Automatic annotation (TrEMBL):
UniProt KW keywords: Amino-acid biosynthesis, Aromatic amino acid biosynthesis, Decarboxylase, Lyase, Tryptophan biosynthesis
Keyword DNA-binding: no
Lineage per the UniProt record: Eukaryota, Viridiplantae, Streptophyta, Embryophyta, Tracheophyta
CDD domains: IGPS
UniProt-listed Gene3D superfamilies: Aldolase class I
Protein known as: indole-3-glycerol-phosphate synthase
Species assigned in the record: Clitoria ternatea (Butterfly pea)
């Protein structure tokens, strides 16, 4: 294998990069390499030597090395596709270019300094590792069987619409949130089930349960526990979804809805995940923070629920004016035409804040800090709306 001018790995009919989502699950999973489902095809390597070109079947180390190279190249291309959609969040590089790789120079330069550029990128890279490990313990085939035992999915959007009609105020998604990277610990005596029950009693239409452990001190046990305790509000699994496997996992843990973050997921991933959500009976809340993300998401078929996050997840800056800005003009017309429900997310503390985003056009709000911090979170809801919304008819 010495003196190779180049080494190409040919796949047996993989989908082209441009037509395949980043988290694509192949029909048959042959576990060639842990990270890339792309590599789940049988592989042969074509070696071009100086004398000419010959196709040889390779095995052992050379195939492994060829796979590593291909995986790295595919990762780079996927980030390029994402960047072309304005996505700044890069996915975790496996571990830099494979040893001895003599590939395109610009790729090597781009991949230097393998450290995340901001908190969202750090969380996503961490999630990639976490999901890879979780998946090994619970392969998709196992999750698919477990779906049958999951509690039936509840109508998340229906609950928001009903609440909005009942109260004349935005339907509340109340968040069970112990901590966040921007605010630290929000509540020391944190009993997720107690908080969830207080929210439900206080008039919340739906609940959002943080499941990320490392940065938000949440867990899937919290989600499962709340469902099992008999809380009736539909539940949003508040997670950083980077892989379609997580959708199945969330459903087996009792989630009725999941969050898809447009700053992290390219269009093709969002489309693909929305299809899987529909298959599983999950509602997708697709989150945007700026005009470009909003326009991308508005162009995707089948989206019924969009969250406008007032917090920039790269810098933590909060500005509730973002909701107003994004709903002005043509975009506002499109959401009304398509009957999409908009959720105003983050940084809402007072009845004035609620009135402001309602005026901007939201039919729902997602609130954590301002209500979870109060000793009685149910009372927190009344303070947020300026009245007891559990009683409103
Ligand atoms: O606690 P706040 O400011 O009321 O925000 C709640 C919710 O909007 C926020 O937790 C959130 C919105 N989108 C997210 C994405 C990931 C993590 C957290 C979030």
């Amino acid at each position: 294998m010495e003196g190779l001018a180049s080494l190409k790995v040919l796949f047996q009919a993989p989908p082209s990069i441009s037509s395949r989502p980043r988290t694509w699950i192949p029909p048959t999973q042959v576990n060639v390499h842990k990270k890339s489902s792309f590599l789940s095809f049988s592989v042969r390597a074509q070696v071009e030597s100086n004398e000419g070109s010959a196709t040889v079947a390779t095995s052992g180390e050379s195939v492994t090395e060829a796979l590593k190279i291909k995986e790295w190249e595919v990762g780079m291309l996927q980030d390029e596709v994402a960047a072309s959609q304005g996505i700044r969040i890069r996915r975790r590089p496996p571990s830099g270019p494979p040893l001895h790789y003599v590939g395109p120079f610009q790729f090597r330069l781009q991949n230097e300094g393998n450290t995340p550029q901001n908190i969202l990128e750090e969380i996503v890279w961490n999630k990639d590792v976490e999901v890879t490990q979780l998946k090994e313990r619970r392969p998709l085939s196992v999750l698919k069987k477990a779906l049958a035992d999951a509690p039936p999915a509840r109508d998340f959007i229906g609950a928001l619409r009903t609440a909005n009609q009942r109260t004349g105020l935005p339907g509340l998604i109340a968040e069970v949130k112990k901590a966040s990277p921007s605010r630290g610990i929000l509540r020391e005596d944190f009993d997720p089930v107690e908080i969830a029950q207080a929210y439900e009693k206080g008039g919340a239409a739906c609940l959002s349960v943080l499941t990320d452990e490392k940065y938000f001190k949440g867990s899937f046990e919290n989600l499962e526990g709340i469902r099992k305790a008999g809380v009736k509000c539909p539940l949003l699994c508040k997670e950083f979804i980077v892989d379609a496997w997580q959708l199945y996992y969330a459903r087996t843990k009792g989630a009725d809805a999941v969050l898809l973050i447009a700053a992290v997921l390219p269009d093709l991933d969002i489309k693909y995940m929305i299809k899987i959500c529909k298959l599983l009976g999950l509602t997708a809340l697709v989150e945007v923070h700026d005009e470009r993300e909003f326009d991308r998401v508005l162009a995707i078929e089948g989206i019924e629920l969009i969250g406008i996050n007032n917090r920039n997840l790269e810098t933590f800056e909060v500005d509730i004016g973002i909701t107003k800005k994004l709903l002005e003009g043509q975009r506002g017309n499109i959401i009304r035409e398509k009957d999409i429900i908009i959720v105003g997310e983050s940084g809402l503390f007072t009845p004035e804040d609620i009135a402001y985003v309602q005026e901007a056009g939201v039919k729902a709000v997602l609130v954590g800090e301002s209500i979870v911090k109060q000793s009685d979170p149910g009372k927190g809801i009344s303070n947020l709306f300026g009245k007891d919304i559990s009683e409103l008819k």
